[in-house]
Amino acid sequence: MKLLFIGDIVGRPGRDAIKQVLPGLREQHQLDFVIANGENSAGGSGITPATAKEIFSAGVDVITSGDHLWDQKEVVDLLANEEHFLRPLNYPPETPGRGSGVFAFKVRSSRRDDRTAQRAVPTNLSIAVLNLQGRTFMPALENPFLIAAEEVKRLREQTKIIFVDFHAEATSEKIAFARFLDGQVSAVVGTHTHVQTADEQIFPGGTAYLTDAGFTGPHESVLGREIEPVIKRFLTGIPQRFEVAKNRVLLHGAVIEIDDVSGNATKIQRVSETLP
Ligand SMILES: [Fe+2]
Ligand SMILES: [Fe+2]
Q1: Given 84, 127, 131, 147, which residue has the most CB atoms within 10 angstroms?
Q2: Residue 96 Cα, ligand 1 centroid: separation in angstroms?
């Protein structure tokens, strides 16, 4: 199967990018499943049912999140009612919402390579998606390594195709986390820094890895926000309003190919798509 993971969608420019580019990418890459991090989709901070609806309508199957989870109070509706919306699993046990899910999908019958050539009809498969948050330079949550180990064991009884969005700041924590899960999950892709890294690879055990997917939104900016207020904040220390920037919108992410049976990744390719 082939999936696309999309890095943090920032504000309206990010949502518009998904609407414009995703249908084409679905065709071009013959995608079976699309996951996107939506933690900055509402005005650059948090997510609401309305912005989530826009993202789902554009062709995203599952939305993940991170430390900006609580920025919009309407998120409680999503946490309570939307099974395709995930928050980091390593919040304390009483936290509303879910940190993982198993989702059914059909492998596209139109994609024919040597191994799938015999397929006359679409095959029904399941993918598990897991969202966790790091703890280095981040708010203190439960230990993501321990929580992931336990959850992956549980998920592997349902499917070997497992995707993890690890929302974290420190590269060392991200690499160590992915190495820890190598061979147990199909892919670990990082989010949160909003800067796409160039270290995509498949580890020896078969887990695809990318330290950070980057972000989907205006790149003539500081991580998606207008440049001047951020500079002013660093110069003076005075809090500023950080409006979402407008220009040079890119869709950032990664396309990952996964063996349906073993769950091992066979290919990972970074995506950086400029809006037409
Ligand atoms: Fe974040
Ligand atoms: Fe973010």
Answers
A1: 131
A2: 19
Task: List pLDDT tens digits, range 155-193.
Answer: 999 999 999 999 999 999 999 999 999 999 999 999 999
Q: How far apart are CA 83 and CA 102, in angstroms?
A: 10
- Give me ligand 1 centre to Cα 192, in Å: 4
Query: Near ion ligand 2, which residues have CB within 5 Å?
Result: 8, 39-40
Q: What ligand has the least distance to the C-alpha of 195?
A: 2
Catalytic residues: 68
How remote is the CA of residue 1 from the centroid of ligand 1, in Å? 28
Distance (Å) from CA 114 to ligand 2 centroid: 39
Encoding tokens for residue 92? Answer: 């304390």
SS (H, E, C) the chain: CEEEEECCECHHHHHHHHHHHHHHHHHHCCCCEEEEECCCCCCCCCCCHHHHHHHHHCCCCEEECCCCCCCCCCHHHHHHHCCCECCCCCCCCCCCCCCEEEEEEEECCCCCCCCCCCCCCCEEEEEEEEEEECCCCCCCCCCHHHHHHHHHHHHCCCCCCEEEEEECCCHHHHHHHHHHHECCECEEEEECCCCCCCCCEECCCCCEEECCCCCEEECCCECCECHHHHHHHHHHCCCCCCCECCCCEEEEEEEEEECCCCCCEEEEEEEEEECC
